[in-house]
Amino acid sequence: MKKIIFILVVLVLGIFSYTIYKEFNTNENFKDKTLCMLGTSDSCFALGLKYLEDSNKSKANYNEAFKNFKKACDKNHSLACNNVGFLYQNGLSTSKNITEAIKYFKKSCDSDSIIACNNLATIYYNGADVEKDLLKAAEYFSKSCKNGDINSCNNSALLYQNEKKYEQAVVNYNISCDKDNYFACNNLGAFYLNGVGGLNKDEKKAFSLYEKSCNGGNFVACNNIAFLYENGIGIAQDVKKAVEIYNIACQNNESNACTRFGYFLQTGAYNINPDIQLSANLYKKSCDLGNQNGCNMLQNLINLVNEAQKQQKSNEKIDNNNTKK
């Protein structure tokens, strides 16, 4: 039986990058200098942003940006602490120091900064100058999730799933799917289909989640719906509908759907008119999309065709010899 597909590679926000906060209002520059000297954290932070803005214009002001972010952070300005961490992490104005970077990111994250929590998660996910720790990455993404970052809900759920912490994964998939993250809906559907993560097996619920994901443009989920229609799981069996959805998913580069549709055309399954050439084309498309099963099916089909042609030539040779006699 074909496996239902989890999305295990798409982490929506691009969790491999780091973020520094840098919105700035130039009109407040003079006032900010004065207020920062008087100890106002927001003004020190704004002044740091000004120097950061200048550094983006090739003016060497990372040092001043660092000083002002540090002043603001010392007064518990969360975003300033994130920016100090970023500058430490990248060796801007100061020596690169991952230990200090983590310390400041953590201070910011503990004050509920989504940016800082995601930066910490990304450090541990990538193993960037620290030991790779997917569970710790999941925990920081989960904290961002609790603070309202829906894509982090999906990211944390994916990592919890990879670490076999299925119940935590279910919690964050639910949050993310409820906010229309369609990748999360697909994965939550697989949990319901298989009764994973403390969930009771519920094929109808799985179908509805796949349907929501598919309607949102996730063609992996469309492939999963086609599988359910094909086998009558959670919905009345409807092979015609399954073939239609496999075709649509394949047209949108879902490689598993191309392989399955190609198999129908090769074998004439479900009374579908066989079409060997189209079957080969679909297997090739699947293979070109990186699907090893598609590559294997294509090679098997080529071998079968070559064997059939070889046998045909052999039969023709025998017939010719018999005719001469």
UniProtKB/TrEMBL annotation:
EC assignment: 3.5.2.6
Top EC class, one word: hydrolase
Top-level taxon: Bacteria
Keywords assigned by UniProt, alphabetized: Antibiotic resistance, Disulfide bond, Hydrolase, Repeat, TPR repeat
Residues annotated as transmembrane: none
SMART domains named among the record's database cross-references: SEL1
Reactions the enzyme catalyzes: a beta-lactam + H2O = a substituted beta-amino acid
SUPFAM superfamilies: HCP-like (SSF81901)
Family annotation (Pfam families): Sel1
GO molecular function: beta-lactamase activity
Signal peptide (from-to): none
Keyword ATP-binding in annotation: no
GO biological process: response to antibiotic
Record-stated family: Belongs to the hcp beta-lactamase family.
Protein name per its UniProtKB record: beta-lactamase
Organism expressing this protein natively: Campylobacter blaseri
